[in-house]
Design a protein that fits this description.
mainly alpha, 2 domains
Length: 284
């Protein structure tokens, strides 16, 4: 869920929109949020199916990006593994993540073995492993959150804190951004944006998370907020690193004004597993 900051830290008036249709982008964003929250509150399995569909789309966005290289993974293996691991983890627990990953890698080796007339087995398997760990296993952490009593609150908390991080980074980066964190990877990310995101997300956790999420008082809420900011920022950088290495601007364009699915979920793929781990650390 990356929100762009200006590449030069300039104020908002100096930053062009780049042709983005803001009303359309807002409408699409609200629609996605409604589908995400609505399915989550209505029925956990429906929510996980919705997530699985988007994860499969994200995997094929990556497949299209890898088409530029010799690393053509057997993406069908990851696409089958995604719904199996999401729903299986929800029904049967974290063992499904471990065993599912192992079986998917074995299946990937078989597919590569059968279809490897052109070579490049190492790069193909490496790309598949990246897909499985970065996208499929990370997304299945949603199921671990949902398995808790009142699990939808923990999913909402991790998601809301990630969105708050994006908003804080965007607002502070546009208005105060001067010192870039890693200009070679993502020129728009600044330390001022990161500090603003941290302050905004900590405030959100203290004022809202502690009052709405069962079993989460001030200390775990603040720890969760800090961890989410770091994880979400790293998630943004991870996608930027891949896109820069592949020489592309967006991994997809399915959502007008937002790019592809991977462009929307990059931060969540790091933040939601961290949400699960922080809750575990506090016995929640």
């Amino acid at each position: 869920m990356a929100v762009p900051e200006p590449a030069d830290g300039a104020p908002a008036a100096a930053t062009p929109r780049g042709g983005r249709n803001l009303p359309v982008a807002i409408g699409v964003g609200l629609g996605l949020a409604g589908a995400y929250i609505g399915s989550l509150l209505l029925e956990p399995v429906l929510f996980l199916v919705f997530v699985a569909v988007n994860v499969v789309i994200a995997l094929y966005e990556l497949d299209g990006a890898f088409a530029r290289t010799k690393a053509r993974p057997p993406t069908i293996v990851a696409a089958v593994a995604a719904p199996v691991m999401l729903l299986g983890t929800y029904w049967w627990g974290p063992d499904v993540q471990v065993h599912g990953l192992y079986v998917a890698l074995l299946a990937g080796f078989v597919v590569v073995l059968v279809t490897n007339a052109a070579g490049h087995a190492v790069s193909r398997m490496a790309a598949l492993a990246l897909m499985l760990v970065w996208v499929v296993v990370a997304a299945s952490s949603l199921a671990m959150l949902l398995r808790r009593p009142d699990g939808h609150w923990y999913v909402l908390a991790g998601t809301a804190l990630t969105v708050t991080n994006d908003i804080g980074a965007y607002a502070f980066g546009r208005n105060f951004g001067r010192h870039r964190i890693a200009p070679a990877v993502s020129p728009g990310k600044t330390w001022e944006g990161f500090a603003g995101a941290m302050a905004t997300t900590l405030l959100m956790a203290a004022l809202v998370t502690t009052r709405t999420v069962p079993g989460v008082d001030l200390v775990p809420a603040l720890a969760l907020a800090a961890a989410v900011v770091v994880a979400a920022t790293l998630g943004d950088f991870a996608e930027s690193l891949v896109k820069r290495d592949l020489g592309i601007k967006d991994l997809g364009g399915i959502f007008p004004g937002h790019g592809g699915v991977m462009d929307r979920i990059d931060a969540l793929l790091f933040a939601l597993p961290v949400t699960h781990l922080v809750l575990l650390a506090f016995g929640i």
